[in-house]
Amino acid sequence: MATKVRPELAKELKRYGADDFNACYNCGNCTAVCNLTEGNENFPRMMIRYTLLGLKEEILSSRELWMCYYCGECSETCPREADPGELMAALRRYAIAHYEPSGITRLIFRNNPLYILFTLLLAVLLGFFLLTLKPEMSVSRWIFERIPYEVIHNLGLGAFVFMGITAFWGVFTMIRKLRGKRVNQEQGKGRFTKAWNAFRAMLREVATMERYRKCDTYEDEYFARKPWYLRPWWIHWSVMWGFIGLLVATTLDFLFKDPATMVWWPSRVLGTLAGLLMLYGATLALFYRILRPVKTYQSTKLADWVFLGFIWLAGITGFWMEIAVFAGIETDFSQIVFLIHTVISMELVILFAYSKFAHAFYRPVALYFSNLERVN
After folding, report:
1. How far from each other are the two terminal CA atoms of the chain, in whole angstroms?
2. How many CB atoms lie within 10 A of CB 30?
3. How large is the C-alpha radius of gyration of the chain?
4. 221 with 366, same domain?
5. Are residues 60 and 181 in the same domain?
6. Is the pLDDT of residue 274 over 70?
7. Torsion of CA 351, 352, 355, 357, to 10 degrees
8. Model confidence pLDDT, tens digit, residues 309-359
9. Which of 21, 205, 298, 343 is the most exposed place for a label (fewest CB within 10 A)?
10. Taking Cα atoms as reference points, which of 49, 43, 56 lies closest to residue 21?
11. Which of 99, 126, 147 corresponds to the end of one domain?
């Protein structure tokens, strides 16, 4: 089957943040210095080649694209300053936008003004939806006199359903493309065992960031002087598991109990610990992006700023609500903080599939297929 070459792809990728890759002359230094390339994995060199040739389907069906954690060593040592690390990040944004069918992700990554407008409109919609869950508030009664309750409530539910469908569709599209690239697919008795071993290896990486910790980019630079809890892999781990912990705590709280003042309740304890972890990671991530001590943090996109800002605000407002509930503080200010916290939290969940955070879906899938290929 012939492969279609699309030289115009290079121009399209510039809208996703890839600018300097045309300077590459295929020396292979980027792959040689990367501690994560194993066996037949040949990134970032292979991905640069795909990009220059415009091999869209090869990019979208590549598991190697997700093996990179953007430690930046390849960019730091590139003799042509082609910035292969940033190309890998741009390709992941491109892939997320093409897996997800609605077009919202393309808007988020490519058009900053429309992204800001979309985020604000979504916040207003979610704010109204939240008021339908709190009809006793005075502002809720004022709103419902002008806009029917059912309209607001159904729009909010529709947004969540739409997010869920597109998120699962994106993951399904990725799985289909990665399965199509697999070789040596083994049938028979040992198939389940190998699949289970590949799944366990994927879970281990998600839980420990073992591969990410191999990135020793800064052994003689900025992070070499930093302890482990100030290094990028720990920041990534903190934000991810803090967010997951809060999601689990919120679900438990919703399903089993609304502990109005019982801060000792398990869901509240889990939420407090997860919130501290998430806030710690988000604060450091924002600090490094403001300080820009190394190349990795020098090209932060608007979508990354918005996502980290939302994470940070969700943490701060969440802790204020924790204090207000525990101390019995019932003021208009507390109600405003509650609205801000809940709207931001709901927006984070809805934008999960459309932002950089979507790699929390896609990277584990790629890791699973990579592990499966290895055991076969």
Report:
1. 25
2. 29
3. 22
4. yes
5. no
6. yes
7. 150
8. 989 998 998 888 888 877 777 777 777 788 788 888 878 877 777 877 788
9. 298
10. 49
11. 99
User: 31 lies in which domain range?
Assistant: 9-99
Could you give the number of structural domains in the chain?
A: 2
The span from the CA of 166 to the CA of 353, in Å, is: 8
CB 50 within 8 A of CB 21: no
User: 161 and 50, same structural domain?
Assistant: no
Residue type present at position 287: F
SS (H, E, C) the chain: CCCCCCCCHHHHHHHHCCCCHHHCCCCCHHHHHCCCCCCCCCCCHHHHHHHHHCCHHHHHCCCHHHCCCCCCHHHHHCCCCCCHHHHHHHHHHHHHHHHCCCCHHHHHHHCHHHHHHHHHHHHHHHHHHHHHHCCCCHHHHHHHCCCCHHHHHHHHHHHHHHHHHHHHHHHHHHHHHHHHHCCCCCCCCCHHHHHHHHHHHHHHHHHHCCCHHHCCCCCCCHHHHCCHHHCHHHHHHHHHHHHHHHHHHHHHHHHHCCCCCCCCCHHHHHHHHHHHHHHHHHHHHHHHHHHCCCHHHCCCCHHHHHHHHHHHHHHHHHHHHHHHHHHCCCCHHHHHHHHHHHHHHHHHHHHHHHCHHHHHHHHHHHHHHHHHHHHC
The pLDDT of residue 297: 84
Same domain? For 79 and 127 the reply is: no
Q: Give dist(CA 65, CA 115) in Å, integer.
A: 25
| Structure tokens belonging to residue 122 | 């979504």
Tokens 């029917």 belong to: 148
Cis ω before 232 (30° cut-off from 0): no
